[in-house]
Amino acid sequence: MSLGYFSYPMPVNEPVLSYAPGSNEKNALKKALADLKKKELDIPMYIGGKAIKTGKKIAIHPPHEIAHTLGHFHLGEEKHVKQAIDAALKAKEDWAAMSWENRAHIFLKAADLLATKYRYQMNACTMLGQSKNAYQAEIDSACELIDFLRFNVHFLSEIYKQQPISGPGMHNRLEWRPLEGFVLAVTPFNFTAIGGNLPTSAAMCGNVVVWKPANTQIYSAQIFMRILKEAGLPDGVINLIYVDGPTLGKVCFSHRDFAGVHFTGSTGVFNSMWKTIGENIPKYRTYPRIVGETGGKDFVIAHKSADVDAVVTALARGAFEFQGQKCSAASRAYLPSNIAEQVKTKLVAAIQSMKMGSVEDFSNFINAVIDEKAFNNIARYIDNAKKDKKAKILVGGKYDKKHGYFIEPTVIETTDPKYASLCEEIFGPVLTIYTYDADEFEAALDLVDSTSPYALTGSILSQDRAAVELATNKLRHAAGNFYINDKPTGAVVGQQPFGGARASGTNDKAGSMLNLYRWLSARTIKETFNPPVSYGYPFMQES
Ligand SMILES: NC(=O)c1ccc[n+]([C@@H]2O[C@H](COP(=O)([O-])OP(=O)(O)OC[C@H]3O[C@@H](n4cnc5c(N)ncnc54)[C@H](O)[C@@H]3O)[C@@H](O)[C@H]2O)c1
Ligand SMILES: N[C@@H](CCC=O)C(=O)O
Fold first, then answer.
1. What is the pLDDT of residues 45-91, one digit of tens each?
2. Exposed/middle/buried for residue 160 (C-beta within 10 Å: 0-12, 13-18, 19+)
3. Is the shortest distance between the CB of 490 and ligand 2 below 6 Å?
4. Ligand 2 geometric centre to CA of 174 (Å)
5. Which of 196, 293, 412, 478 is positioned for an S-S bond with 264, CB 3.0–4.6 A?
6. Is 408 an annotated catalytic residue?
């Protein structure tokens, strides 16, 4: 029961801590890293609030130090997917009936726990488990996840306020119901914040959720689950399971109560999910919501008027932060012939100054890529470029997996505007450069628009306003997040709602009101105060 309209104003973004030398936060984070390194965690699944251990233990190693074991997670099987769905459906009625303010406060409390008590432990888990440096972990597993929780509470409050008008003698209202059934959240390795946001955004709306993270993100996912429990999330509202993708899909996508999937990951996996769901439509109680944010082949195009240092920085940070493993990472650059040589020279120098190694040494800008499969895939693109006459390696190109999955930040230059590494998502520290005739800017924009099937992020760097306008118009559908004089990464919740279209997903803009609508199913209720008591129209009283 709610006895008032309670207010959840727009929050401010969580401040990003600097981890400067000698700072309290740096000391606290170093301690959290050391503490985690001293123990091996035994990580259960969480089904109906219970910790489930199957005994099938899978080891977790830091990608940058594969000889070290951080702990083990307990692998589940088909019966655990069924148990998770049953636990979710059992929790559904009470959760959906809970007043909004009580639901909201669980997520606001989780945000506060994350911002204070668990901040360093969470960042340390992300650093060790996903090989993210301190700054990248801070903007992901602390700030972005805290922002997702706080801003979504505000956005949902604004949605609940949206109501229709009422004519005389009646009242109309919209009830923002949760979906009928359970929501499946399937999350990627690269952002702890995305892992936390996909299940909680749906749950906040009154839904119950089965959450399956990538195996390579379980080390940080488990701590978020423990935070939610400590914040008071009732048992069964979010059920965290570790199973392989096909097993998950087999059970969830053939279940009558499957109400929607909240996915972030590769385009291929999303396409296969969509196909299976389509084939199973007659089995479901209701049409499921299918929300997926998928791959990218994100561009930077510089105009001949661009500031050289701004282009170099946009590329160095945009392409290589977190080893290029952001769906938003710059992976193709189009340089005008008048400044191309200057940009390349400065970019090579910047990259040569980047240190690579363990996350425990805070001076390392580059750490390891996530696992051996990713390492081998990225190395294949580099090897092909080494062999190919149409390409050459400008800088980097070496890789080594003896101690960890290390790949040097690499720039490929090609003379072929349709070269494979300009078209395909690599998801690693590889940037491909193509130089265009500085006087053919409009043709270069057409090339950017037509080279890859993706449309996630992109940047234009220019000091010429007409060129900015032309690029903004011609590239309207080439990116869901378009940046002017900036790198194409680093969207902030509440500031740059995030997502792309074409092969990059359904563009439901994580961290915005648009996303939350997908987890709600409105019911319109009209109440008439003085109902008519005869069926005739006034004109029928005379012939
Ligand atoms: N657009 C965005 O907002 C965004 C954000 C982050 C990552 N990404 C994309 O994610 C990808 C990298 O992440 P990843 O390597 O974890 O992606 P992935 O597609 O390999 O895995 C994503 C999730 O899907 C699961 N999965 C894999 N196969 C499955 C199957 N057959 N059925 C059901 N689930 C299955 C994985 O276990 C994981 O939990 C890149 O393509 C990147 O561009 C996109
Ligand atoms: N929101 C992040 C990207 C998330 C995808 O991996 C950014 O804007 O860089």
1. 999 999 999 999 999 999 999 999 999 999 999 999 999 999 999 99
2. middle
3. yes
4. 34
5. 293
6. no
Strands (E), 340-445: 391-395, 399-400, 406-407, 410-414, 430-436
Check if the interface score ipTM surpasses 0.90: yes
39, 183: one domain: yes
Nearest atom (ligand 1) to Cα of 370: 15
Phi and psi dihedrals of 275, rounded to 5? -60, -50
Is there a single domain that holds both residue 278 and residue 326?
no
Residues 457-467: pLDDT tens digits?
999 999 999 99
One domain, residues 302 and 201: no
Catalytic residue among 14, 65, 138, 293: 293
**Can you read off the two tokens belonging to residue 462?**
């220019």
Q: How many domains in the chain? A: 2
HSE of 127, CA atoms in CB hemisphere, 13 A = 31
157 and 207 within one domain: yes
Say yes or no: 192 and 340 in one domain: no
Domain of residue 141, residue span: 35-294+505-526
* CA dist., res. 301 & res. 426, Å (int): 19
Distance of CA 340 to the CA centre of its chain: 33
